[in-house]
Amino acid sequence: xxxxxxxxxxxxxxxxxxxxxxxxxxxxxxxxxxxxxxxxxxxxxxxxxxxxxxxxxxxxxxxxxxxxxxxxxxxxxxxxxxxxxxxxxxxxxxxxxxxxxxxxxxxxxxxxxxxxxxxxxxx
Length: 123
Known about the structure:
alpha+beta; about 120 residues; single chain
């Protein structure tokens, strides 16, 4: 009878397969976590930019129906669009204000964040 002093080739291959699958799993989890962090950072930045632009519109003493757009000077990768329309045809004292923020590095323009509110015209 022979004494076994080493590993079989099959055992070595199985160990390599288990290590490789574990590394692939860890790599995939890392990739997903990185994407989530990037999306979270983008959402966080957009929320502050939305708040800033909405504050600018709501503190305007001469609010009137209009549409406008532009870029943020402090955040060159983002641009905004705003729309102020009368809330209803019979009441000109209330306006519906919509502000949207988009990331200009993304190719899809519909991928943005929006905020909508109603405001009374200041007298």
